Amino acid sequence: MKIKNICCIGAGYVGGPTMAVIAQKCPEINVTVVDINEKRIAAWNDKDVENIPIYEPGLSKVVDEARGRNLFFSADVDKAIDQAEMIFISVNTPTKAYGMGKGMAADLKFIELCARQIARVSTSDKIVIEKSTLPVRTAEALKNILENTGNGVNYQILSNPEFLAEGTAVEDLMDPDRVLIGGDIDTEKGKEAVEALVNVYAHWVPKERILTTNVWSSELSKLTANAFLAQRVSSINAMSELCEKTGADVNEVAKAVGMDSRIGSKFLKSSVGFGGSCFQKDILNLVYIAKSFGLNEVADYWEQVIIMNDHQKRRFAANIVRTLFNTVAGKKIGFLGWAFKKDTNDTRESAAIYVADYLLNEQAEIVVYDPKVKEEQINADLDYLNTRSEKENRQRIKAVNDPYQVSKEAHAVAILTEWDEFKELDRKRIYDEMLKPAFLFDGRNILHQSSQKAIGFKTYIIGENCDLL
Ligand code: UDX
Ligand code: ADP
């Protein structure tokens, strides 16, 4: 089966970059990315390619090359669905905020709406691909909706989980460790659909890196991969607290442990806690699924990864309060960074949000500098927590465009995101502008204790033994 038209529903962090790379690598396939959010589509179509709504290194160049040639962004969802032989579903699947499974299960209402829309408008056979992270057996629900409400059209459902990490999305898409495709490989039609998707990726991914499995294995592999990665971060973060007590240095421990080839060196960087749209959501999902099968020990095992992560965020914030003589009321605390990691403007589940919320409860005044995050996003993130009124959030937290404004007359500066530019800042200037004693809290382990001491800072670096007072 030769694919000529691809439609992707959802122009977000997954759909946008993935489709841009597919379009660039497959010039003979028309790729249309659709979204109900017209503002987002308009931004993807902005004449100045630097204004596309998602910041990812290298992405604007890829979009610039393919946009208008065989890559299109549109709000006409129905038309794109009907024209395509292959439809990717890349809509958001947040954790449910209501009812059964609240706070744990994935909310599949956007997926279901997509399925119903596909069923309503399709007049020819379709390969429908789950790209969003989904609980195991979602494909079955999709199939059910499509086959029972469709116009007699044939559907093949594939699972093709995304393993790209934000900040390195383009790199990850261009040179993936593996591409995973799950399908109904026991039937001829199913095999054909899998083959069609394999052929899309084979334009640039070596065949031996394209794995095909049954749908359920593919769905569960995605959750498992994210759970394992998050578990490594929680494991090193657990050790960071022990390092602080014992005089060990978490960077040295991570290096020594990571050189064991059975363990490996990646994802052993201790931090103020992992964030992002996937780790927490996927683990909560795993916990929910395990519980629903009565597998309580399995559920408890994975839940501990989240408990550790919450503890890490809380103890970082509590340490700031304790160090600042047990009160931050009315004190200016500068934040360097708000995004959940460097090289992205995404703030979902960012540790900075929770640290800020804790400090605002203690009546602190926070000033944030993040090279890619705007004040309205910071306000929206805090409002979403519903801890205090929107008015109070706006009174107590401000964003600035210059990193040195963060330190001006601040009692403390905290590093929440590991942006490279923070390593280049003039520390002496920061020190001079702060109130004394000048406290520096490094939640990303990017500073060296000795050089800060020489300037005069009282420094806390996560995972290092330090005597602040
Ligand atoms: C993750 C997975 O890596 C990716 O494969 C999947 O498709 C989506 O979820 P992402 O959330 O974009 O990607 O970023 P990732 O690099 O995994 O980082 C997640 C969080 O963990 C960030 O907050 C990061 O700062 C933190 N982290 C990561 C650490 O604290 N230490 C580390 O060593 C690595
Ligand atoms: P992700 O990180 O999974 O890509 P995002 O929130 O960045 O998540 O993007 C998901 C996109 O899907 C949003 O832009 C949202 O407007 C879009 N979306 C959600 N439901 C639908 C739908 N039924 N039809 C079209 N687009 C949708």
Automatic annotation (TrEMBL):
Domain UDP-glucose/GDP-mannose dehydrogenase C-terminal: 334-449
InterPro entries to which the protein is assigned, alphabetical: 6-PGluconate_DH-like_C_sf, NAD(P)-bd_dom_sf, UDP-Glc/GDP-Man, UDP-Glc/GDP-Man_DH_C, UDP-Glc/GDP-Man_DH_C_sf, UDP-Glc/GDP-Man_DH_dimer, UDP-Glc/GDP-Man_DH_N, UDPglc_DH_euk
Pathway terms, separated by semicolons: Nucleotide-sugar biosynthesis; UDP-alpha-D-glucuronate biosynthesis; UDP-alpha-D-glucuronate from UDP-alpha-D-glucose: step 1/1
Keywords: NAD, Oxidoreductase
Catalytic reaction list: UDP-alpha-D-glucose + 2 NAD(+) + H2O = UDP-alpha-D-glucuronate + 2 NADH + 3 H(+)
Enzyme Commission designation: 1.1.1.22
NCBIfam families (alphabetical): NDP-sugDHase
Similarity comment: Belongs to the UDP-glucose/GDP-mannose dehydrogenase family.
Protein name: UDP-glucose 6-dehydrogenase
Organism of derivation: Gramella jeungdoensis
